[in-house]
């Protein structure tokens, strides 16, 4: 791969990853019924509204899930994979493989996003336990639907919350399954956004 192709691959990976995270966060904001008046939420909404508004006219919500956001995330992931494959290998991938790889990449993006947001929440709870910063409030709102079931499983430990350990174990198991699925599907390494 030449220098130009490498630079293009880097730029595509960075931009697609950033926008993919925004779209996933938009989905999670609605799923968690997070505060849409939070300034960070407002940024996410404004950044994702241009493609989502027309898509919502075609793709209805199913069981309260923002399916348009999920479809947009899948399309962003697929576009990134297709561009990277074409730039790196001059290959146009068949639609079935592209769909499978996009689903695997999207699943990995979700697990990584939860992993890092939970880590950030834990660190901030130690450093600034009473902080009302908009980012921390948003992290808490996004993580709470995932953390709450695990908190109910564990007995009270006198103020010590061990539920993140269980969540991290589940995330790691899911990542093992996703990586094995990626290997079984013949996915080229370094191409799927979020799977690296």
Assign an overall shape. globular
Beta strand count:
0
- Assign the structural class, choosing from mainly alpha, mainly beta, alpha/beta, alpha+beta, or little secondary structure: mainly alpha
Largest sheet: none
End-to-end distance: 18 Å
Overall pLDDT level = 88
Order of helices and strands: HHHHHH
Could you explain how this protein is built, in words?
Keywords: Membrane, Transmembrane, Transmembrane helix. Belongs to the YggT family. The chain crosses the membrane at residues 7-29, 58-86, 98-128, 157-178. One of its GO terms (cellular component) is membrane. It comes from Sinobacterium caligoides. The chain has 196 residues and is an all-alpha fold. The chain has one domain (3-184). Helix content is 75%, strand content 0%. It contains six helices and no strands. The protein has helices at 3-31, 39-58, 67-89, 95-127, 134-153, 163-184. The radius of gyration is 18 Å and the shape is globular. The two termini are 18 Å apart. The mean pLDDT is 88.
